[in-house]
Amino acid sequence: MTNEWWRSAVIYQVYPRSFADASGDGVGDLAGIASRLEHVRSLGADVVWLSPFMTSPQKDAGYDVSDYRDVDPLFGTLGDFDALVARAHELGLRVIVDLVPNHSSDQHPWFQEALAADPGSAARDRYIFREGHGDRPPNNWQSVFGGPAWTRVADGQWYLHLFDASQPDFDWSNDEVRQDFRDTLRFWLDRGADGFRVDVAHGLVKADGLPDYTPPENADSMGGAEPVPYWGQDGVHDVYRDWHAVLAEYEGDRVLCAEAWMPTVEEIAKWVRPDEMHQAFNFAYLTSDWNAAELRGIIDDSLAAFGRVGAPSTWVLSNHDVIRHATRLALGDESPQGHGIGPGSKGIPDTAFALRRGRAATALMLALPGSAYLYQGEELGLPEAVDIPDDARQDPTWFRTGGERYGRDGCRVPLPWEADAPAYGFSTTGRTWLPQPESWGSYARDAQAGVAGSTLELYRTLLRLRRERALGTGSLEWLDSPAGTLAFRNGDVTVMANLADAPVPLPEGEILAASAEVTGRELPADTAVWLAARA
Fold it and tell me: Which of 145, 253, 276, 314 has the fewest Cβ atoms nearer than 10 Å?
């Protein structure tokens, strides 16, 4: 089939803690999300993806789950979830739920049972407990958040946690673990969820024997380009074939999307073979530099690799784990994934220059065939929040690296809705779980709505044209263009992006949309334009 909705959908990521707070406690919640869904609909998105809202001690902002089949009281109740889904469906929006299967919270009843049980017990077999080497852990693996990936318990055994010590990894060779997650899938599908975004989808299965591994120097936090014994093992695909069968029991094209941080699109495409997942994030695209030749290569590789397995390409520029692209694409120094930036970082760009480049990148991305992901606040042009006080930071990366890495707080600051309201309309009390920059009033939604040239109106225009002209289900034909630029045709739209330092001649055609002002027949630097293609 080629008419499944997910092949061309625009999916809007909501980070619940930071979207909208209905209770006034300073933390976003499900009722707040439901109250603002009309914004997502009017923007032109098709789907809302909810980052974790399940019961959790919140050691890692909900990615440490203690009950997979309930809502954390911080975000509301199951009734609030049901109301949110009902409102979304009423507005024509689908809802995707974030699922975290690689690890649980250390407060999960199973892990508490494991701590109280003996080595070799059935309770411990649900997780990865091993004997160490005297006072040394079973191997040399390091946590993604910094420091050792092993923690020792009172009886001398060690348990594996690829992330924080409060996030023990499940053992996915255990049948009880596999059945419990089948039950979790059905629980949320029965409540109306349209699918799942799967966290660390490449990490569930570890190599036999848990061999030592040392990442190459300057590798990002998800490992290197060579085979990594805890990422992308062949056995993980059996899990998703099983899940695919579960979702096939339900009507309405329910979907699975993989967060698989693999080094090439060819490897990522393995997650979306016909009997596995439906989409996988295109991290090669997200992490690319602002460089025409590099982007063209990634676009070609993506369309080819995903096309070979019958899956749509996906495109994404920002999410809750990376520096916002309205800052990142203009950074002078390389910033590995997960490291973040802060007041001590070098080469932080001018916000106006960075936003210009970010808007151009968005205009380029939304013209590509396939499915696109947006991260809340990018439609407002939000930059990375840099000046967060040290005592306000909450990302485990900040603490586990002793402040060496700033982590991801800068892309998670609560949204500004109203320029003159307390907390910019995020909460009625003015409380926010992370401080909002004083400059964010100018980014507020009400300061941009209906304002020609604003970032919000640019996104609305691009998404409207994308839908009207069926660009998501179209095809790409490259056109000749000057060095440092990209030009292609998708359906009846010609797209040109100038990634060079100087203006270039503009192709013929009526301008439909532009990321910055275009006068005459020249396309300025760091600008992208959509034109009505000549027949």
Answer: 253
